[in-house]
Amino acid sequence: MPTLMNRRSLLRAAAAVTLSTVPLARALASDARSLCFRHTHTGEALSLEYYRDGAYVPASLERVNHFLRDFRTGQIHAIDPQLLDILASLHSVCGSGGTYEVVSGYRSPRTNAALRRRSTGVAEHSMHLEGRAIDVRLTGVATARLREHALDLNRGGVGYYAVSDFVHLDTGRVRHW
What we know:
Number of domains: 2
Order of helices and strands: HEEEHHEHEHEEE
Number of strands: 8
Helix content: 40-55%
Distance between the termini: 66 Å
CATH architecture of the largest domain: 2-Layer Sandwich
Strand content: 15-25%
Strand order of the largest sheet: 3-2-1-4-5-7-6-8
Largest sheet: 8 strands, mixed
């Protein structure tokens, strides 16, 4: 009979552990995610919670779409929420309370074409055109260090532009340059 008691005890313990992890899973799913931005070209600032209670906050995403618009044309495009998640993860691993300085968010086809005529570093089919890329700095974090942390995330594309002092991040396949 002692073996049966041990099995029952083990099953009860396993059930207790399983039940106790449900609130933890809910708590993790409801983690709030926030970001702070300053746009280097417009001078605008934005600080918001874009994810709460296990879901993206639609009003916050709309504010992000407007903030990351093509500042040259005023065109607004939906920004991939996964890009915001990359920024939030990067912010966390950098251990910085800093603000993202945005160099470029969404780019309209017209703006992208104009930039391509002036620079060889602008892709014809840039992910900026799809709202899936951003060029940033993070206050208090050297861009070389920001790049290293971004590479460690192993999520999307990471480009490092030392001369212009920014890091490109996107939600495409994992790659770097």
